[in-house]
Every structure is written in C-alpha cells, then in structure tokens.
Please model this.
Amino acid sequence: AEANRSAIEQAVQDTAGQIVTYDKKPIIAVFSAAAGERTETAADVWGSEIPYLQSVESPGGESCPKYHGTVTLTADEVRERAAQTFPAADLTGDPADWFKASERSEAGGIITVKFGGVRVQGTALRTMLGLHSTNFTVSVQDNRLTFTTVGYGHGVGLSQWGARYLAEQGKSWR
Model:
C-alpha cells in the first residue's frame, strides 16, 4: 500500500461522496479475486436474480497467480468428502462416471452437475473439493481425479485482478 499511497489517496478524493445506485437504491457491491473470461451472474452462483450483476467480459484475470489451478484427489478422498456433504451420491464404479450432465453458466461455471447420480450445486462441489472456482473440468487417471479450474473466487461482480489490469491500461474508476 505504501508504494501506491498517492494513487490510493487520489482515488479516495476522486470518489468522495460518490455512491453507485440501481433503481435509486445503493447496489450490493460484490467482488471476487479473478473472474474467468466473463463474470458470473448472481442468479447462476447464488440463485438470486440481481439485474446489475450479470455476466460481462472480464479481461485481465489471468494475471492472478491462482487463475489456473489444479486439485488432485484420490477416489477415496473424494468419497470421504462426499459422505459428509452428499451422502446419497453413489460413488462406486469408475470415477470417470461420477460426473454427468453438467449445466454451465454463460461464464463457464458449473451451476449444477449430476455427481454420483445426485444433482448438486457447483458452488457446493467447489467448497467440498477445495477448488478455486466452479469453472472446472475433471480428468481421471489411475484412480486419481484432477480438477482443473479457471478463475479464482465466486466470479460475481468486480474482478479485482481485472480491475487492476484495466487500471494498468490507463482506465479510470469511471
């Protein structure tokens, strides 16, 4: 912060007294670390339609060190975690068959997926598996599941790394 102190102070002065509204009411100003190529809608992530929290292009997130991530778990580790969160999921047989019929958002995040035959929310899977985002793919090799993610965080609203990128391109807060 010290290296950027004057820019921070200028930003505070430039926005003093400003408030962002929608329909004459203050917005819910949410942000995540780094959206993928697009931000997520509030409806796709939280199930609530908020007119101003829609999916838009979001350049610059790839500069985040956690933009691309992987988590590898054994089939037994996934079963152990699922027993707590999704006890009805049938995780017998080939782990490559555990994930079916995913519904993805416009931004690429998993809204729902059949996991062991049970329809589950992508956000719940993200939490259970310890993933960086709901925008993930899964590959299976030697009884190990590798989850590859794009983006870091829930992806709704302002992407902090995207905002940094835009500032570096000379864009103002407006």
